[in-house]
Design goal:
16 strands; seven-stranded antiparallel sheet; ATP hydrolysis activity; nucleotide-binding; about 30% helix; alpha/beta; P-loop_NTPase; nine-stranded mixed sheet; about 300 residues; T2SS/T4SS_dom; 8 helices; single chain
Length: about 300
């Protein structure tokens, strides 16, 4: 089978089955190739791939993602809109070489609205989030990789009438109605610089792809304090640990007290062979917990 055809079939399958990730991982002389959807893993090739075929697939995706095909050691990130019969599938690419200089690739499927993890939120949950995330201030979206944080931010931002600016590394979901900016360190276009730039455009909602260092958290707080609505993702293990993570990154308690308006945590879980959503929200001094299992009603826990 030709490499192009094989890559088409893998991405088509990932789209149809609503997979979140596709992995190519070196294992001695062969490669493991498997998909992930929430907590579940699936291998389309029981015997794996030969190192030669896997290398050709990785190089193809790197080329399409405008990554350095000759570099097999350093971490590289990329994003592409992969053409399929139904249209295009947005993909995020991440490669790195191990100590034997064997390269691995992880492909994240960035599904568009209607086919993404946002469907796991029940209508009453989305209504609660929409009603409580429109005010000026900082809203943090936390949870493991692949839990749908970015999708939820986009969903909520679309409900706002006005200008939405996103700052990401890279842009994950293509949204023509938003002004989408992408971090590019090669031209000094960092999160901090783009946050400063966004203030001149006076957005109604500013989405920050990820808070990962002191400059970014300080920039997010600065924008929120100037009267803007700011959504940002943050890596935290739970709702309770989110504020500790902010302080660890350099956020000041006095400033956060003035601008932090909400924390949203969500995580996909395996529930009787299906995928359910554990979601927790905190707005102001009110603390709400919801647990939802697929096919059942939303259960409120005090």
């Amino acid at each position: 089978m030709e490499i192009e055809q094989l890559s088409d079939e893998l991405i088509q399958y990932g789209f149809e089955q609503q997979m979140q990730d596709l992995y190519f991982l070196p294992q001695k002389e062969n490669y493991r190739c498997f998909f992930r959807r929430g907590p579940f893993y699936e291998s389309p090739m029981i015997n794996g791939l030969s190192a030669t075929i896997a290398s050709q697939l990785i190089n193809r995706f790197k080329y399409l993602g405008q990554m350095d095909v000759s570099e097999k050691r350093k971490v590289q990130l990329g994003a592409i809109s992969y053409p399929l019969s139904h249209g295009e599938q947005r993909l995020r690419l991440s490669t790195v070489g191990d100590y034997l200089q064997q390269e691995s690739l992880v492909i994240r499927f960035l599904h568009q609205f209607g086919n993404s993890p946002e469907v796991y939120h029940l209508p009453e949950q989305l209504e609660l989030l929409q009603n409580n995330s429109k005010k000026r201030g900082l809203y943090l979206f936390c949870g493991p990789v692949g839990s749908g944080k970015t999708t939820l931010m986009y969903k909520l931002a679309r409900e706002n009438k006005g200008q939405v600016i996103t700052i990401e590394d890279p842009v994950e979901i293509e949204e023509p109605d938003f002004l989408q900016l992408q971090v590019n360190e090669k031209i000094q276009q960092s999160y901090d610089e783009l946050i400063k730039l966004s203030l001149r455009h006076h957005p109604d909602v500013l989405i920050i792809g990820e808070i990962r260092d002191p400059k970014t958290i300080q920039g997010a707080i600065r924008v929120a304090l100037t009267g803007h609505c700011v959504y940002a993702t943050l890596h935290a293990a739970s709702l309770e640990s989110a504020q500790a993570r902010i302080f660890e990154l350099g956020g000041e308690a006095a400033l956060l007290k003035e601008c932090l308006r909400g924390i949203i945590y969500q995580e996909l879980l395996a529930v009787n062979g299906t995928i359910g959503l554990l979601a927790s929200y905190r707005f102001y001094q009110e603390k709400l917990h919801f647990t939802w299992k697929e096919g059942l009603s939303c259960v409120e826990q005090k």
